[in-house]
Specification:
heterodimer; A: mainly alpha; two-stranded antiparallel ribbon; 10 helices; B: about 290 residues; Rossmann fold; 3-stranded antiparallel β-sheet; 9 helices; about 30% helix
Amino acid sequence: MSAPTLPPLARVYRVRAAVELREFFRQRESVVFTLMFPVILLVVFGAVLDYQIGAGVTFTQYFMAGVIAAGILGASLQNMAIGIATERSDGTLKHLAGTPMPKSAYFIGKIAQVFAVTVATVVILLLVGVVLYGVDLPGGAQWLTFAWVALLGSAACTLLGIAVSSLAKNGRSASATVTPVALVLQFISGVFFRFDQIPTWMQTIASVFPLKWMAQGLRSVFLPDVLAAQEPAGSWELGRVALVLTAWVVVGLVLCVRTFRWRDKADG
Amino acid sequence: MSAPLDPGAAISVRGLVKRYGDRNAVDGVDLDIRRGEIFALLGPNGAGKTTTVEILEGYRSRDGGQVQVLGADPAAGGRRWRAEIGIVLQSGAGDSQLTCLELLTAQAAYYPDPRDPAEVLELVGLTEKAGARGRSLSGGQRRRLDVALGIVGRPALLFLDEPTTGFDPEARRQFWSLIRSLRDLGTTMLLTTHYLDEAEELADRVGVITAGRLVEVAVPAELGGRGQAPAVVSWTEDGARRSQDTPTPTALVAELAARFPGEVPDLAVSRPTLEDVYLQMIGQSR
């Protein structure tokens, strides 16, 4: 047997990343709803909710943190849950499982997609914020906080999205389930409204999920430290942000490993 | 006790059992498919065709029996084993925003020794659709793309699960010639189909599966005793349609020729078609 060797992993990973980027950016619905939706929210809410929240800071500056957190949620959790559920019900996953593609390559491709969409979303949001509403960009060390909060948050939400995809019957039912849940989370997690003005019991519910912690971590980046006093805890709680998001990464990973299916449930 | 697995066969199966609940969906199937052969698996919906094929493809686990596909147990087949087989699923390869050529190029990258994607497009007759996106294709074109994806890895063994469903007659003829050219390249094929003319046209041997059991394996011309079946000679006499079963149709036709002054009115000689014997076989075992 002089069988030719299998292609190296790195090459297959590159191919899958290219496939996933094309699949996303060529689909008008995904580009509009995942990428542009947070931008539209920023434009609309920035124009409507034009008031000061203290210390000479506008609500738009506050909203910037929330809308970036919502954008990350869309690019990771919503995007993965809907995209993978669709690929499972239309036979894409079953087809791939029948090829010698290493299984890891599928997930590497998805991670590349989430990363590209997240970066694109954040860059557009920052541009629009600065140009349209004069949002102050963070400086120096704050970018480091920005990076780890975004990275940890999107890792947790990507894994959760992959896990949630296994619950849905197909892409449409995933979209119908995940979209309203994400919207409610956005309302109670301090995206559209100041978190400290939300009823305490809602704050408690929001505290279970990663979105609240992403938004809070990002507020520490976009708002002056004097406003930390307005947070329910009286501080940015960056240590707790890291802890909760890491916990969700672990939970998401366990759920993914235990629930991921390459075939449709109806397929036996 | 059945014979041991045939190590030289492309596919060798002994006593295969798959249970769903307390029902045996596959109930003791023995099967050998030779290298280079085209084998058609026939059977009504729910007979266990797809379950059997998906066990051979490594998609499903089995509850009993021995299975060897290209020298390995599909339940333990790794990437190297997968690189030797091609699969065209009933459900197709999924929706995509990629073009046909991009899809084939990506798929080729998973294999150690792939065919040239452009040549594969030519082979399935999709060259002019190379730049068209997967989801913009018609049903028949899409099925040809599925086949292209199945063969781009240069498989030694190709599974085709109802590959021509939804084809128009011309597309089916084209597909048949594609399958023949793959056979000429030495590809072993396991085909499931509902079209008996397709099985007859393509298959070296056919197997009929009903209620989880393989009831017969034969060359198409001899399935169900078809080779020895009496011919039916029919004609019109005294304004009425007559017909007679006979093992010696030539003698009967000679006799009729002598009886009528010129042409025998509406003379026809027919033998049972593959469809006739198939329907009889699956009718009996129900």
